[in-house]
Amino acid sequence: MKTITENVETIYEIKNSKFITLLYIIKDTNNIKNILEEVKEKYPKATHYCYAYKTLNEQKSSDDGEPGGTAGIPMLNVLLKEDLINILAITVRYFGGIKLGAGGLVRAYTKSLTTALDKANYKELINGLIIEIKTSYEEQKDLEYKLKNINIINKEYKEEVIYIIEIPNNKLELLNNYKYKILKEDLIEKKDY
Fold first, then answer.
1. pLDDT 10s digits, 32-60
2. Which of 10, 73, 75, 168 is deepest in the core (most CB within 10 A)?
3. What is the pTM of this model?
């Protein structure tokens, strides 16, 4: 699995129709409605706002008034074929006056999205865990050594030192000598551990 490292915007034109594709990094579906509203405000006179997204637990597409199956589903199929996750793709269409036909629409939405994906940068994702670890101040140096290649999200100094880390599932044995609890399963960036 992979995801994009930054948001992307591209323009593709065919037969006077303009297709603006916007790629967004998302972790869940909570902000999709707000992002769509912002896109509609930015491009208020567009004819269609078609989209597709894929997260760890959900995927969806919308043709937004285009003939059924000619926009959203082809876009979602591209995301699935490219093994992309945590991504929202929106293609804004300005109709140019020349009908493209069903096959032409599928090709146009597919080409518009692949053009945007060609411009994107990616990072590999793997299954991981978000974990809280507590250790004494005396053991902190040893723990820090074991975590040298692990992403430390947060560190707090209280009665004990409390770490929040991202760790690949297959590196959990590094923590065998420590008190920890799994906060959640998540996709994390693949690194050389």
1. 999 999 999 999 999 999 999 999 889 99
2. 75
3. 0.84
